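Minimal example, chain plus iron/sulfur cluster.
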Amino acid sequence: MPSSQTSAMQTIRVDYELPDFSRTGAANSVQHAWARVPQEPTQAERSALMERIAGQLKQKNAVLVAHYYVHPDLQDLAERTGGLVSDSLEMARFGRDHAAQTLVVAGVRFMGETAKILSPHKTIIVPELEATCSLDLGCPTDAFSAFCDQHPDRTVVVYANTSAAVKARADWMVTSGCALDVVNHLKDQGKKILWAPDRHLGAYIQRETGADMLMWNGTCIVHDEFKAFELEALKAEHPGAKILAHPESPSAILALADAIGSTSGILKAARDMAATTFIVATDNGLMHKLRTLNPGKTFIEAPTAGNSATCKSCAHCPWMAMNSLQGLAAVLESGGNTIEVDAALVERARLPIDRMLAFTAQNARAAQAGSGIVPNIGAA
Ligand code: SF4
């Protein structure tokens, strides 16, 4: 999580882990990145910015797709203007299938890249080109490619939270919503898997499937921070509450959870479970949608720090937080911040994504034919 603040620049330093497989034991080193902190607009500024953005979207025949973790203003604006707020998979799928030739992606960079890979002829605009992800940063292409070269007998499965170049090195891309099904499918075919980059999600899938999985050692800086001891204490204060956890959380958190799922899976569990109070271990950006969709239920953020720390729950991605109304309005009016991906890379990176999309579409059809229930195919 952010470890220091330099208010003059309105940026924070963000530490993340970089795995090093050239050393025995795959030790991780701590690296430093940064994130910009946007100013919260006043109510009057907020209304004016929303008007400007809505006008620009119309003028440019553009559609806004926003991730569940970005500011509630952007989520609401996306829905109000005919766009979508969702997980990374649905964002990309919606953008690909929408008639608009310009997609505005409020999230982090890899989401913009995925949209470009799936819609290479469309213009992809992001509010912040420098909004990144610790999983993406912690899985550099050259090091990952060398790791793959060392294990040519393994099927390479990468999470959505990776660069276009890392996806281009993979056989499959998965999201947290379909990873279990894909890995089970590969296991049934007798495949051994090389998994990257999130070690907690990988370990969860390995426990659930029993597949032979070799892990890259990356983490999400948000989910990695949840603390089991503090969570148990919070649960003791709310004995009737159910714990909902994202599988990027450490195994000690998942062991306490009543339901484990992607963002879409957590939304579904909150809707379907009879409890009225939930403790939620994922980025607190999801609280907006949880509370909007379940007005009679109470949602409490899972704690992220030990007793001695001052921050008890700062579970919000600093890069998702870079997305702002001000930034988006400025970008739409200036015409900047387009995402470009090399054409050869698009062609190669599309293969593992298309493989996943075909697989999830087939699974959805089978599930609907069999049970009438729409399956959870959510993503990070
Ligand atoms: S919440 Fe975690 S996985 Fe999502 S973008 Fe931020 S660092 Fe990456």
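The domain at 137-215 is CATH 3.40.50.10800 (Rossmann fold). The pocket of iron/sulfur cluster is lined by residues 69, 108, 133-135, 161, 220-222, 283, 317, 319-320, 380 (CB under 6 Å).
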